[in-house]
């Protein structure tokens, strides 16, 4: 009986401490882009982090957005204190981290993790701050692939004249599609999948994690495929209004996010396994180096035009040269 009383007393004390922590926490609104909405994986991941944020003195009110543009606009208008966006959309708030999705700049998971480990160090904080905007976390989302309705379109040359759903707010995507002679069909993260699935376009690009939730298999169907060449490495970024949070909050979130990387890559691996083996289209080995060089030239031109951040491209080139030091780019250092 005494033991039971002790347990009840302990539970009561725990509840009291929890209520006290909640009472002392500041209320902040976190706007989360998830194409599925409140039931989507991104929203649920952010929801699971609420107790941790509460320990740091912040009580988040979560709001789901299926339209990324509106989420970004509400954040810019200070209707959101924090926001979760794709790396490309985040570029307007931080050019450096917004360049991590640069075309062909990060070959694989190993390089991505090396870059994220570098940026999570406290000394890198200045790169993650732009005025009052602070990137408080970067979550890997896997490679971006080209999804095709016709698997006979199996080289870049055959994309000439084909209609590609293109993020019309992203200069890099517009430049790339035009560079290969394809036709731009303006799209957003909210509607590109629908355009691909209903046949309005011949191709669309996305990470594997979009395949099942956005039903891209409907567009691939029997005759299409997924071109097994990594166009970029997608990521999601948590951005905050720095002055709306306790000092050091951003660094705490970055360190917390780094502990979620293994889980993130498990989700990516599962998503890629959901694409049937017969739907993967493998480029000829002799073509791959040509694709690599093409993306590199596009990156450099976009840097010179002010789209990509030069320091970010330099960091990614250094990482590529650590894993593959024999590359010609490690000698000429044009990036």
UniProtKB/TrEMBL annotation:
InterPro entries: AdeT1/2, TRAP_DctP_sf. The keyword Ribosomal protein does not apply. Pfam families: AdeT1_2. The keyword Flavoprotein does not apply. Residues 1-23 form the signal peptide. Keywords: Signal. This is TRAP transporter solute binding subunit. It comes from Oleiphilus messinensis. The lineage of its organism: Bacteria, Pseudomonadati, Pseudomonadota, Gammaproteobacteria, Oceanospirillales.
């Amino acid at each position: 009986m005494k033991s039971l009383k002790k347990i009840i007393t302990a539970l009561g004390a725990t509840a009291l401490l929890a209520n006290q922590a909640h009472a002392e926490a500041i209320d902040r609104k976190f706007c989360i882009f998830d194409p599925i909405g409140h039931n989507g994986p991104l929203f649920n991941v952010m929801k699971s982090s609420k107790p941790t944020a509460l320990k740091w003195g912040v009580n988040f009110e979560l709001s789901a957005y299926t339209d990324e543009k509106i989420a970004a606009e509400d954040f810019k208008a200070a209707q959101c204190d924090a926001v979760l966006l794709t790396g490309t959309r985040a570029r307007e708030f931080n050019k450096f981290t917004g360049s991590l999705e640069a075309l062909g700049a990060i070959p694989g998971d190993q390089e991505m993790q090396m870059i994220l480990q570098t940026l999570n160090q406290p000394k890198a904080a200045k790169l993650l701050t732009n005025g009052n905007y602070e990137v408080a976390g970067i979550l890997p989302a896997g490679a971006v692939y080209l999804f095709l309705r016709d698997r006979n379109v199996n080289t870049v040359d055959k994309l000439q004249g084909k209609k590609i759903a293109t993020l019309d707010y992203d200069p890099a995507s517009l430049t790339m599609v035009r560079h290969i002679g394809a036709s731009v069909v303006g799209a957003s993260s909210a509607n590109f999948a629908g355009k691909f699935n209903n046949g309005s376009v011949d191709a669309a690009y996305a990470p594997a994690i979009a395949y099942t939730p956005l039903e891209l298999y409907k567009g691939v169907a029997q005759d299409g495929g997924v071109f097994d060449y990594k166009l970029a490495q997608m990521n999601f970024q948590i951005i905050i209004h720095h002055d709306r949070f306790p000092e050091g909050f951003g660094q705490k979130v970055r360190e917390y996010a780094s502990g979620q990387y293994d889980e993130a890559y498990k989700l990516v691996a599962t998503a890629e396994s959901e694409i049937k083996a017969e739907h993967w289209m493998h480029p000829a080995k002799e073509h791959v180096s040509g694709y690599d060089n093409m993306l590199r030239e596009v990156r450099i031109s976009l840097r010179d035009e002010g789209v990509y951040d030069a320091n970010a491209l330099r960091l990614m080139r250094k990482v590529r040269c650590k894993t593959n030091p024999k590359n010609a780019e490690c000698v000429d250092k044009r990036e």
